[in-house]
């Protein structure tokens, strides 16, 4: 098998080989190349020790030298070059107590997580596949290198990575590997929130986010996202729905594009439903106020998983407004743009569409037509430059003070009043007209 290595990767491998060392592209880049996917990163493994690597390249950074990793800088690109190593005992389900360098490639590949990630390649030797990675790629399965319990005991994060790779590649997890996941899932409690967040996001923005259901069946969400488990089996006996809350969420996730904010919004949008569910005397279920409760759940989970403030702000706002439904009139759309935010409004429309498509056919066409019309009006509002924010008002605080108003709460309240006045009719947004409106209000 021939893999086309990038020019700079070839340069690094050739330079190491010229000086008597072995060197191979290794791991995910080899896997992705075989699958005709474009690798995100190219990692290189070598028999050269870190100090020897540093001598051979002009610019290097000690990114993980205690683990044998040196980053080689070539122009604007960087490549991690790691010495063949054998990991010592794992004492915290994450990090080896020691790292020992070896001169055997097979020993280095043996410590890796899954067979499909334990292949190496260079143009001289071609593919090195000691543990059946190629066979597992051909059979579409995620399988651990060696004993799965041993691999997961070494690093519990591999448990979540198994589901993440399953979602990215649409490969089922091999039976023995899945059993080990189920058995050792509780050890995920030892993994940092940041690491779990990274894997969860990769799973969600994969082509198959619905495989979060596998994480539930294998006992993973019980540890990292118990709020998911609370949705499972919560029936929605209403004409608008045909799935329980968890299944509806799975379908909603699939109906939205692979964007972090959108996928997170769909994950959380109905998480408040179990807490507010009521059933009337006719057996019909109701979930009044679920959007606000879902917003709080989303904020709590995202803070627990150490998401950045901007992502939390965007996702929680979208969760809060995901069920905001109004007649598609210019006034209503302008007001919604003001409340939700001009930049966030296309996300809101995408969230509503994904939600509707995951519901029952009941009134679906009417709902979709409403969203499509809102999108058309939104674009028209933007095109016409109609006022939907305080910044777009033809007057500001100084203009109102010139009319005799003093700085403070009253002035802020008047500006908000003017914005509502203009949102109802954009033609009112002239300085002269708004000043007259203020004079009338203040009886000047």
Structural write-up:
- The protein is α+β, with helices and mostly antiparallel strands and 444 residues long.
- It is 51% helix and 9% strand.
- The protein has helices spanning 7-18, 28-34, 50-56, 105-110, 133-138, 148-154, 157-169, 175-184, 193-204, 212-217, 221-224, 226-231, 245-254, 260-268, 273-276, 290-304, 309-321, 330-340, 345-357, 364-384, 397-402, 409-424, 431-442; strands spanning 23-26, 43-46, 60-64, 69-74, 77-83, 85-87, 99-101, 120-122, 126-128, 278-279, 285-286.
- The strands form three sheets. It has a seven-stranded mixed sheet. A two-stranded antiparallel sheet has the order 6-7.
- Strand 4 (69-74) and strand 5 (77-83) form a beta hairpin.
- Helix 7 (157-169) packs parallel to helix 9 (193-204), helix 13 packs antiparallel against helix 14 (260-268) and helix 18 crosses helix 20 (364-384).
- The protein is globular and about 90 Å long.
- The relative contact order is 0.06.
- The mean pLDDT is 95.
């Amino acid at each position: 098998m021939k893999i086309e290595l990038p020019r700079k990767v070839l340069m690094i491998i050739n330079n190491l080989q010229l000086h008597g060392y072995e060197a191979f592209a290794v791991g995910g880049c080899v896997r992705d190349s075989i699958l005709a996917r474009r690798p995100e990163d190219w990692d290189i493994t070598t028999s050269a020790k870190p100090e020897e690597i540093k001598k051979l390249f002009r610019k290097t950074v000690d990114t993980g030298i205690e683990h044998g990793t040196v980053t080689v800088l070539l122009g604007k690109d960087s490549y991690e070059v790691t010495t063949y190593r054998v990991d010592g005992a794992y004492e915290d389900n994450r990090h080896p107590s020691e790292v020992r360098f070896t001169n055997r490639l097979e020993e280095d590949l043996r410590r890796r997580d899954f067979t499909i990630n334990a292949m190496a390649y260079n143009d001289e030797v071609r593919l090195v596949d000691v543990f059946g990675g190629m066979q597992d790629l051909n059979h579409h399965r995620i399988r651990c290198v060696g004993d799965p319990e041993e691999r997961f005991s070494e690093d519990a994060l591999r448990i979540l990575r198994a589901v993440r790779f399953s979602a990215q590649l649409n490969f089922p997890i091999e039976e023995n590997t899945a059993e080990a996941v189920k058995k050792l899932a509780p050890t995920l409690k030892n993994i940092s929130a940041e690491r779990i967040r990274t894997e969860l996001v990769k799973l969600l923005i994969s082509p198959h986010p619905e495989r979060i259901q596998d994480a539930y069946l294998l006992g993973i969400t019980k540890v990292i996202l118990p709020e998911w488990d609370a949705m499972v089996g919560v029936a929605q006996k209403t004409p608008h729905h045909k799935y329980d809350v968890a299944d509806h969420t799975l379908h909603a996730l699939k109906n939205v594009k692979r964007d972090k904010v959108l996928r997170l919004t769909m994950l959380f949008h109905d998480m408040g439903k179990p807490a507010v569910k009521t059933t009337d005397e006719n057996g019909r279920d109701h979930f009044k106020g679920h959007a606000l409760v879902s917003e709080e759940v989303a904020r709590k989970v995202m803070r627990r998983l150490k998401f950045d403030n901007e992502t939390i702000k965007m996702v929680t706002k979208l969760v809060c407004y995901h069920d905001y439904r109004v007649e598609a009139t210019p006034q209503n759309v302008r007001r919604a743009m003001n409340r939700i935010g001009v930049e966030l409004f296309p996300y809101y429309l995408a969230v509503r569409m994904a939600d509707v498509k995951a519901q029952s056919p009941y009134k679906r066409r009417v709902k979709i037509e409403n969203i499509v019309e809102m999108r058309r009006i939104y674009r028209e509002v933007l095109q016409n430059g109609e006022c939907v924010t305080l910044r777009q008002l033809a007057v500001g605080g100084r203009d109102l003070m010139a009319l005799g108003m003093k700085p403070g709460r009253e002035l802020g309240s008047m500006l908000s009043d003017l914005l509502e006045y203009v949102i109802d009719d954009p033609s009112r947004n002239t300085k002269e007209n708004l000043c007259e409106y203020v004079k009338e209000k203040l009886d000047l």
